[in-house]
Amino acid sequence: MKIIKSFFAIASVSMLVVSCDKVKDFGDTNVNPNGTATPSTAALLTNVEAGLGATNTQGGIYSQMFSETQYTDVSLYALPKLNFDGIYAGILMDLQNIININTDDATKSSVTKFGSNANQIAVARILKAYILWTVTDRWGDIPYSEALKGEENLTPKYDKQEDIYKDLVKELTQAKAQVDPNTPAVTGDIIYFKPAATKPGGGAWGQADWPAAAAKWKKLANSLKMLIALRTSKVYPNAGEWAATNFASGYNDADGYISANADNFVLNYPGNVTAFKNPWFNIYNGRTDYAESKLMTDLMASLVDPRQGAFGSSTVGFPYGLKRDDAVAFGNANTNYAKVLSDSRRAANSPLVIVAAAHLKLAIAEAAQRGWITATVATEYQAGIQASWDQWGVTGTIATYLANANVALTQTAGDLQKIQLQEYIAYYPDGTQAWAHWRRTNVPVLTPTPNAVNAGGKIPRRYTYGANEYSVNTASVAEAATRIGGDTPDTRVWWDK
User: Fold this and answer.
1) Per the CB 3.0–4.6 Å rule, which of 56, 83, 125, 248 could disulfide with 175?
2) How much is the CA Rg of the chain, to the nearest whole Å?
3) Partners of residue 352 on adjacent β-strands
4) Which fold has domain 41-68+79-201+208-268+461-483?
5) CA–CA separation, 19 vs 27, rounded Å?
C-alpha cells in the first residue's frame, strides 16, 4: 500500500516540477465526459463484503483444525512473516472511502442515492471494526489511529493493541447508534439488505425491508462488542472489570445481539463468478493442500458429535505436523482422508457463516459462568450447541449429546473448559477465530508438532511484521517491535498474557 502510494506521490511531484505547464496544455483532453469524480459507495461496500470470506488457513493450522497434506511449512512453524498492507490498501481503504465521501460536504450529497449518509457511515464503521479486530488479533500492535490517511500520512505509527481494542468497542457503540431504520437504506449490502439469497416470501427488495436489515446491523454491532470484550478475559477476568462491563453492555442492550440463526452474519455466494464463489470451493478447485486434522476428527468422535458429517468429507483425519514426505505418503495411502467440509458444503454457492448465534450463545454461557452477567449457564450452553447443529443442518438427540461425559456440565470448575471447547467447535472452519480462541483459553490442549523448524518448537502466538513494513515504514515498525518485546512468533499479543 505504502509503496504504491509513495510511487504515485513521487511521480506526481516529478510531473509538477518538470512539466507542470505542459500538463495544462492538454486541458480536459483526458477527462471522461461520462465518468464521475465520486465512486459508487454501493460498489465499494459490495466489494468489501464479498472479500470477507477470505480464508485464514494458517490460523486453522495453528489451532490444529486443519492439516497440510503436501507443503507442510506452516504446520512446521516456518516464520510467519506476513504483510498486512494489502488489507489496508484493499477492503479497509474501501470502507474508509465510504466514510470520507459520506462525511465530506463536497461529496456527501452525491452519494445519498446509495443510502443516507449516516447509514452508509455506520455500516462501514461496523465492518471496519470487525476487519481491524481480525488484523490486530493476528499481528498485535498495528497501524490504527494514523492509518488510512492516504498521502497525508504514509508512515503511520503502530498503536498498542489495548488502545485499539478499546477504540473498537467505542466505534461499534457509536456506529450502532448511528444506524437509522427510518432513513434511506444502504445499497450494495449483500449480507443483510438485498442479499444474494432469494428474498423470503418472494418479491422485490425495497425500502420497506430496510428496518429489518437495520435491526440486524445493530445486533451485529452488539455481538462484535461482546466477542471483543470476551477475548480480553485473560487481562480482565473478573466481574466489574472492562471485559465484563462491555460484554454486559452489549448483552443487555435493547437492540439485542445475534441470538438466532436468522440473524447470522453470513455470505451467500451465488457461485456463478470466480470472485463470488465459496472460498473453500476455490481452495479445492484443482488442489487438495488441506485436510481436516486428526485432532479434529478424534475430538468429534469422542463427543459422538453429528457435526462431523458436515465438517469433513469423511471421518479419516489427517495427522498434524508431518514432514512433507510423510504427509504425501499418508495421503497416498489414505485417499479418503477428510477434506475440510463435506462435499455438499464446499459447493461454489455454499454459504459461509462469519458471526453466528452459536458463537454468541456460547459466549454468553462463558460470561455467565464467569459471573459477568446474569444468565442460566446450562440454558445458554444448550442453546449454543443447538444453534450450531441447526446452522450446519445436522440432527440428533441433544439430550443424549449433553449426557456425554466430555460435554455434560457438572457445576464444577471443569465446566468452563467444556464451554470453551464447544466455542472452539462452533468456530469451525474459521481459522482466525479458532487460533485466537485457543490462545485465549488453551482449549483444546494442543501439542506442538515434534517436527517444528522454529527455534522454540512452539505453536506461533502471532504473525511477525512483513518485509514491506520494514522497507517503507521502518521507524514505526521498529518502535512497535521493541515495545512488544521483539517481533517474533513467540511474542504474545496484549490479551494473550
Assistant:
1) 125
2) 24
3) 267
4) 1.25.40
5) 14
